[in-house]
Amino acid sequence: MHDPIIIPTDEGLFCPAGNFHIDPWRPVPTAVITHAHADHARSGSAHYLAHHLSLPIMRHRLGEHRFTGLDYGEQRRFGAITLSMHPAGHVLGSAQVRLAHDDGRVWVVTGDYKRDPDPTCAPFEVIPCDTLITEATFALPCYRWPPVERVGEQIWQWWAAHPDRPCILFTYALGKAQRVLAVLTAHADRPVLVHGAMVAMTEIYRQAGVQMLPRATCIRWARAADLECLARIRAQPQSPRYSAIRKASPLPSCLPK
């Protein structure tokens, strides 16, 4: 009986033969990161290894650390383990981690992944292996997503049908927001006003060559109002709070008064 290549520890998934962790929960000497979402990439480790397209996002979110970037398919040796990363199709730079032991066994840790097409990242790749450790966020058979092209068409129809009011769409700041902006390029070339939390992530995607709708310049308005307040102002201009909110937070110059 062989020892397992991956074991669970208090810090997360650990590879004893290579002496590294994958997506650790706590600071460790060497952290192999599948992608840059905050539940997988946490601050404090001494050395991070990830796909090179994840590194700008990790630097923005985690600050300066010791980072090493790999290409898909590039191999690195860690003790008795040959490690390589392969597309997961989840977000920019997302990767499955392939661990090939010198005794011939191959294990794969998927991280988050999806098999649907996504114009913002490399498509999911099937990696033959002996043992697969998979994420299962939406694994139940009740989850059946419509094609992304259909969703993009629905968003565009809703947006185009309301030219005189703000259309506000809530998305994750990393991954979903950029996917929406990319899918909508098939229907429009209008600028989109994005929340400040999405600005840096969107520009990192753009610098990586991802084609998306242009982003309107965000304004510096007071913390007293957010996009919800903006929607209320535009929809109910005669409300009692209208004057106070407008005084505290002027509307962006890119929007009609």
UniProtKB/TrEMBL annotation:
GO terms for molecular function: ligase activity. Keywords: Ligase. InterPro entries: MBL, RibonucZ/Hydroxyglut_hydro. It comes from the Bacteria. This is DNA ligase-associated DEXH box helicase. It comes from Halopseudomonas formosensis.
